[in-house]
Amino acid sequence: MDHNNNIAQLKDSGLKVTGPRLKILDLFEQNPDAHLSAEDIYRLLLEDDSDIGVATIYRVLTQFEQAEILIRHHFETGKAVYELNRGGHHDHIVCVKCNSVIEFFDERIEAIQEQIALENGFRIVDHSLYMYGVCPECQAKAKK
Questions:
Q1: What's the average model confidence in pLDDT over 125-131?
Q2: DSSP H or E run through 22
Q3: pLDDT tens per residue across span 86-126
Q4: Bridge partners of 91?
Q5: Which pLDDT band holds residue 4 (cuts at 50, 70, 90)?
Q6: Residue 2: its pLDDT value, please?
Q7: Could you write out the DSSP letters of every residue in 108-133?
Q8: Regarding beta strands 91-95 and 130-133, do their DSSP bridges make them parallel or antiparallel, or are they unpaired?
Q9: Which end of the chain, N or C, is less surrounded by CB atoms within 10 Å?
Q10: Residues 124, 117: contact at Cβ < 8 Å?
Q11: Any residues with CB less than 8 A from the CB of 93 and at least 6 apart, and which?
Q12: DSSP state of 35
């Protein structure tokens, strides 16, 4: 994790560098593959003895989303989760038991979506694909 890079990223996004913003961005940088809710962030910050309130976390998450630092998703868990915007497109498979998330990219799926859009006279400007299932770990637990 490059703390100075995070400071530069906040400044480049037009956001003032504050302690809460920096701590939350550092948390995402330390967990680059994570999909975290505001509650997850609050819990992780508490474990780190940070005294950032839930309202501040929600405010920072909204600012980061607007600045395109984070991407917000609404999986079937009923709460918003956020991930770092690393550019590029990917899709998600979500476990309905433990809420683990796997990211993937498949050219075949992308091509089929383009074909379907074309056949219907559409030009895709954005899309999201979420697949839901039971992960291997939860399947193994169920067999015991």
A1: 90
A2: helix 19-30
A3: 888 899 999 999 988 999 999 999 999 999 999 999 999 98
A4: 104
A5: low
A6: 60
A7: HHHHHHHHHHHHTT---S----EEEE
A8: parallel
A9: C
A10: yes
A11: 101, 102, 104, 130, 131, 132, 133
A12: -
What φ, ψ does residue 39 adopt, rounded to 5°? Answer: -65, -40
How far is residue 20's CA from residue 26's CA, in Å, rounded to a whole number? 10
Cα dist from 80 to 37, 75, 85, 117, whole Å: 6, 7, 15, 28
Residue 18 is encoded by which pair of tokens? 């504050």
Radius of gyration of the chain (CA): 18
Report the sign of the C-alpha dihedral through residues 107, 113, 117, 120, in that order: positive
- Rounded to an integer, what distance in angstroms lies between the CA atom of residue 71 and that of residue 131? 18
pLDDT single digits (tens) 36-78: 999 999 999 999 888 899 999 999 999 999 999 999 998 876 7
Report residue 124 as tokens: 């895709």
Length of the chain: 144
Query: Which residues have CB under 8 Å from 30's CB, separation 6+?
Result: 1
